[in-house]
UniProtKB/TrEMBL annotation:
PANTHER family linked: CONSERVED PROTEIN, TRANSMEMBRANE PROTEIN WITH METALLOPHOSPHOESTERASE DOMAIN-RELATED
Name of one Pfam family that matches: Metallophos
Domain Calcineurin-like phosphoesterase: start-end pairs: 43-238
Naturally occurring in which organism (per UniProt): Winkia neuii BV029A5
GO annotations of cellular component type: membrane
SUPFAM superfamilies with a match to the protein in the record: Metallo-dependent phosphatases
GO biological process, one term: lipid A biosynthetic process
Protein name: Calcineurin-like phosphoesterase domain-containing protein
Gene Ontology terms, MF aspect: UDP-2,3-diacylglucosamine hydrolase activity
Length: 306
């Protein structure tokens, strides 16, 4: 009897690993909507998070590039683009088509430091630490930043910017150029975040966005207190391994597990912001599987508040 139980458990684990390897290659398009300010036009924000690309990830390259075929007003890249130092070529192919429109980017730890194996059970006892990272970044992060900025995207690592973007036409309104303001920070997960001053157009912008790679409380609170309408993050991979009826088991951050992915309200200092945390597109090369947590790109629609 015990042998049968052990054999059954082993087969279940093997089946889970096989499915997890398959599911990580089954990307989805997620769509959510929030109410905009009264009188504001319709906007759409595309988020690409946690690509974790390595040279053989052709399926992911094609999927990210295909997002350029869907109309949107602004692209937000929340970092962790690399899973291999040799992935710059495929990164250019994945994101090149998206550079034709307005965009902003920040970085995660895996834009600076290459991935390495970690005991997965350590995530149940807190966030991963920097103790075993090299002192000097070993990924071509400056080359990646140059690629994005030369393509026209704004670097919002501890910076803020006002952008002119095009709204989407609606039933009673044509598309138009409007101002969207963005405040961003570098990766809070490795302590690189420093909140910038809001851009000059912050108070009058039709949409105010806070951008960070990792959704840490101190950053979400600061964006909310400053008056952000929408905060966009990645990093968590939605838990990467989820269980039916339970959800994410870990999120490698200091926020409650229920915020590991999706659209939520975040409250601080008597204010409320909408928080969207993406499940992301990829996985680290050292843990190439997902379970009950398919990769995604996300479109966030900001619809006029009638």
């Amino acid at each position: 009897m015990i042998r049968k139980l052990v054999a059954g458990f082993g087969l279940a684990c093997l089946a889970g690993l096989v499915w997890g390897s398959i599911e990580r290659r089954c990307p989805t398009v997620t769509g959510v909507s929030i109410k905009g300010r009264a009188g504001a036009p319709r906007l759409r924000v595309l988020q690409v998070a946690d690509a974790h690309l390595w040279p053989s990830q052709r399926w992911e390259v094609d999927f990210i590039a295909s997002a350029a075929d869907i109309p949107y007003s602004l692209c937000v890249n929340t970092g962790d683009n690399f899973s291999d130092g040799g992935a710059m070529g495929v990164l250019r192919k994945a994101f090149g088509p998206l550079l034709s429109g307005p965009g902003v980017f920040t970085f995660g730890s895996n834009d600076y430091f290459g991935p390495h194996f970690k005991n997965p059970f350590r995530y149940f006892f807190g966030t991963s630490t920097n103790d075993d990272r090299p002192d000097i970044p070993d990924l071509p992060h400056q080359q990646l930043a140059d690629f994005f900025t030369q393509g026209g995207w704004a670097d919002v690592r501890n910076r803020s910017v006002d952008l002119q973007v095009e709204s989407l036409p609606s039933r009673n309104r044509a598309s138009e150029q409007v101002t969207v303001s963005v405040m961003g920070v570098d990766d809070p997960h490795i302590g690189r975040d420093k909140l910038p001053q809001p851009p000059s157009g912050w108070d009058d912008a039709v949409l105010r966005i806070g951008v960070a790679h990792a959704p840490y409380r101190r950053v979400l609170d600061a964006f909310t207190e400053t008056g952000a309408d929408l905060i966009i993050c990645g990093h968590t991979h939605g838990g990467q391994v989820r269980l039916p009826f339970i959800g994410a088991l870990v999120n490698n951050s200091d926020i409650p597990l229920r915020y590991a992915s999706g659209l939520h309200d975040w409250y601080f200092a008597g204010r409320r912001a909408k928080l969207f945390v993406s499940k992301g597109m990829g996985t680290s090369k050292t843990a190439p599987l997902r379970f009950w947590c398919r990769p995604e790109i996300a479109f966030i629609d900001i619809v006029p508040d009638a």
